[in-house]
């Protein structure tokens, strides 16, 4: 089978459509919603409205760029969850209507599994089984990947996701939204050992990031009271210290899982996998522990429909279809 699929992603604040044929991505169009910048975070209602405005032009561009007519499609895929309910509803409703009008089968895709399967868009591809550190604004997980469709969450955050910790820490420092990328940029020229922050040690492979946000808040208040321009005078070092702490928290559990399971195939996925500090640290650990490391291209780290299309490709081959009764699940699990 050489299926040609249209995939739609609308879980948060990116409206995206992709066309894949025989496992090869032909197009991947992403419309980012800049409106959230003025609010310092994603506003769900505004995200839903923007998806409604963007979805038809984005799908049209994806088909046009791929040079694929609607009549050539074999199925339509969409993100079922996890994500924002209103945002998911837009993509789900459009996909069901589009498929119904063309009498095409539907494929519902797990957003987090799709992040992991983004590794199969380009070479090199990881060998099974492998461990994937899946890190984003909403999730932090260590996933054991046995096959394209067989995954098990070994550990996850018990409170905040690491992406949220990056963004909230940046906000405490007065950085504009989204703060995570800016914090990463400033950290590149800072001293990561200048200001120590606590690394929370959870049982097993689980994580916790709520404590570090409180620690940073108290740190900023205390030092700003003693020195008026403390944050600005030490911004790069503060950013580097925060980033080092968050990355070490992640790596500590990843090393433990890799050692205990005897797995040397290691991957990262999700929006935070675009972080330059995390990428560099992963390469350092690869040399130290003899890992084979897989890091997706930047365009496939953040939310995009190409990863939804890749997941849908393997589901199509497995005959894993859904019905017109499918509905979004904001809290869908891997």
Automatic annotation (TrEMBL):
InterPro entries attached to this UniProt entry: ATPase_NBD (IPR043129), Gcp-like_dom (IPR000905), KAE1/TsaD (IPR017861), Peptidase_M22_CS (IPR017860), TsaD (IPR022450)
Residues given in the record as substrate binding sites: 134-138, 167, 180, 184, 275
Keywords: Acyltransferase, Cytoplasm, Iron, Metal-binding, Transferase, tRNA processing
Cofactors required: Fe(2+)
Residue ranges occupied by any Gcp-like domain in the UniProt entry: 24-309
Main subcellular localisation: cytoplasm
Catalytic activity: L-threonylcarbamoyladenylate + adenosine(37) in tRNA = N(6)-L-threonylcarbamoyladenosine(37) in tRNA + AMP + H(+)
Binding site for Fe cation: 111, 115, 303
Superkingdom to which the source organism belongs: Bacteria
GO molecular function: tRNA N(6)-L-threonylcarbamoyladenine synthase activity
Cofactor note: Binds 1 Fe(2+) ion per subunit.
Subcellular location: Cytoplasm
EC numbers, comma separated: 2.3.1.234
Protein's UniProt keywords contain Cytoplasm: yes
SUPFAM superfamilies: Actin-like ATPase domain
Similarity comment text for this entry: Belongs to the KAE1 / TsaD family.
Function: Required for the formation of a threonylcarbamoyl group on adenosine at position 37 (t(6)A37) in tRNAs that read codons beginning with adenine. Is involved in the transfer of the threonylcarbamoyl moiety of threonylcarbamoyl-AMP (TC-AMP) to the N6 group of A37, together with TsaE and TsaB. TsaD likely plays a direct catalytic role in this reaction.
Name assigned to this protein: tRNA N6-adenosine threonylcarbamoyltransferase
Source organism of this protein record: Rufibacter sediminis
